């Protein structure tokens, strides 16, 4: 398993979901669709807050020492 970091190449907004997909080995588009689907039943704010926190907590992938 790779280290968790924001992706620089596989990004639509900030690379958070692309980085998670690289780390766990799943297609990023599947995570993006799940994220969109889960936004509405959770009331939007919990997932957006989590995404925002990950945006500031996760380093860029070129900053991660392997």
Looking at the structure, what is the overall shape? globular
Distance between the termini: 11 Å
Structural class: mainly alpha
Quaternary state reads: single chain
Return the string of H and E elements: HHH
In terms of DSSP E residues, the strand content is: under 5%
Segments where pLDDT lies below 50 for 5+ residues? none
Overall mean pLDDT: 87
Task: Note the total helix count.
Answer: 3
How many strands, what sense, and barrel or not for the largest sheet? none
Determine Rg (CA atoms, Å). 12 Å
Number of strands: 0
- What percent of the residues sit in helical stretches (DSSP H or I)? 40-55%
Q: What are the key terms here?
A:
66 residues; mainly alpha; globular
Descriptive account of the structure:
- Helices cover 52% and strands 0% of the residues.
- The chain is mainly α and 66 residues long.
- The chain has a domain at 16-57.
- It is found in: Cell membrane.
- Keywords: Cell membrane, Membrane, Transmembrane, Transmembrane helix.
């Amino acid at each position: 398993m790779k280290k968790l970091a924001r992706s620089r190449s596989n990004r639509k907004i900030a690379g958070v979901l692309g980085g998670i997909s690289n780390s766990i080995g799943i297609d990023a588009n599947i995570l993006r669709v799940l994220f969109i689907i889960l936004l509405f039943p959770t009331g939007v704010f919990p997932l957006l807050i989590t995404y925002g926190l990950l945006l500031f907590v996760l380093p860029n992938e070129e900053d991660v020492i392997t």
